Amino acid sequence: VMRNATTDSPWPVSNNPYAKYNNSSREDNNGLIPLWQLVRASTAAPVYFPPESVTVGSKEFLFVDGGITCYNNPSFQTFLMATTEPYGLNWKTGEKEMLVVSVGTGNNPIARADLAAGDMHILYNVSSLPVALMNAASTEQDFLCRTFGNCLWGEQIDREIGDMCSIKNSKCGGPTKEKLFTYVRYNAELTREGLDSLDLNDIDPSDVRKLDAVAGVPKLQKIGRAVAENHVKANHFSSFN
Fold it and tell me: Degrees (nearest 5) of the Cα angle 156, 219, 39?
């Protein structure tokens, strides 16, 4: 997912052959955009990285990370793109028909009990708002997936909602009588408490929390392996063998 800064609109892009803007006869066919540019544009987080200029048909657009739209976690949008009529796929729904696997890049809540009103100046907002928007969007998409899908795994969303995981006998009812898909969410909280829960006492959260923490890549890889070992279970996928 990208955000088209030129038109002020989110741009979800897929390899769906039936999508309107994937039609090979169109001059502005998304399939003509080089893959490296899609990756670069969809990860161009404002403030941290410059926008990516992309030519689509006869027009030039500036794109930034779609994380600052409501699709930072695009899991529920992916479900909609697979099932709603305008996208043309019209896949069958049902918890034994569809599996949505969401893999996060690390949750990074920055709680400050000592934060004062005077601390929230323009520089504070410039540095904190992008991350705040991304976290809120990701949480909402995750919540929607757990509401309409049968969630088999996922950490607690908050103390009120809980984790909504049926496999843990948590409260998980929603507005639909039957769940529309099966859902799992794998992620790590990059706080001291979160890393300790993965037995990663040797990793300093400050080394891995920033969006541009390139030097922390080996530690981030270690976190990913710990999440896989502790959270990913074979029974999450048993209905789809």
Answer: 80
Decide if 97 contacts 36 (C-beta within 8 A).
no
Sheet-wide strand order for 52-56: 9-11, 2-4, 59-65, 52-56
- Which residues are within 8 A (CB) of 146 and not within 5 positions of it... i.e. 6 or more apart? 154, 157, 163, 164, 165, 172, 183, 185
Phi, psi of 42 (to 5 degrees): -75, -5
pLDDT at 211: 77
Give the helix ranges, DSSP H, for the chain. 35-42, 75-83, 122-148, 192-197, 217-231
Strand partners, 158: 162
- Work out the mean pLDDT of the chain and round it to a whole number: 92
**pLDDT, position 122:** 87
pTM (predicted TM-score): 0.89
Contacts of 188 (CB under 8 A, 6+ apart): 104, 106, 107, 194, 195, 198, 223, 224, 226, 227
Quote the CA–CA distance of 102 and 185 in Å, as a whole number: 5
> Which amino acid, one-letter code, is at 145?
C
Q: Which of 133-142, 174-183, 193-202 has the lowest mean pLDDT?
A: 133-142
Domain residue extents for the chain: 2-68, 75-240
CA 103 vs. chain centroid, Å, equals 7
